[in-house]
Specification:
With 114 residues, the protein is an alpha+beta fold. It is 16% helix and 18% strand. The chain has a domain of 65 residues. The chain contains one helix and three strands. Strands 2-1-3 form a three-stranded antiparallel sheet, covered by helices on one side.
């Protein structure tokens, strides 16, 4: 998925849907097209740890499922709509000083820099 590594855009709009692609296993179901969705399946593994836009997810699902159609395997990729929650995130007006992470200085950073 190198060239499709769009995943979550740099400027994310909350009204845009996000998905995760999952590899699932289907028993007794035989798809005809890459975009068929199984009536029942068991999740095997996430295809990526990252969230994706529906367009990027469709590219992955199409490539994976076309391969599965040729191999006649019982694995299938599906895109699952998700909601991202920022638990423990700051809220407006909350003190941020004690909650921020301290990062070590980069090697190319001058010792006198803040």
């Amino acid at each position: 998925m190198d060239d499709a590594h769009e995943q979550v855009p740099a400027v994310y709009h909350p009204d845009e849907p996000l998905v995760r692609v999952w590899i699932v296993q289907c028993h007794g179901w035989f798809p005809c097209h890459w975009n068929d969705v199984p009536p029942e399946a068991i999740a095997v593994a996430a295809a990526s740890d990252a969230c994706m836009t529906p367009r990027v997810a469709a590219q992955f699902v199409e490539g994976f499922n076309r391969e599965m159609l040729q191999c006649r395997r019982s694995f299938w990729a599906i895109a699952v709509p998700i909601t991202v929650r920022f638990e423990k995130d700051l809220t407006p007006g909350e003190s941020a000083v004690a909650r921020g992470l301290e990062f070590p200085p980069r090697e190319d950073q001058c010792a006198a820099s803040p």
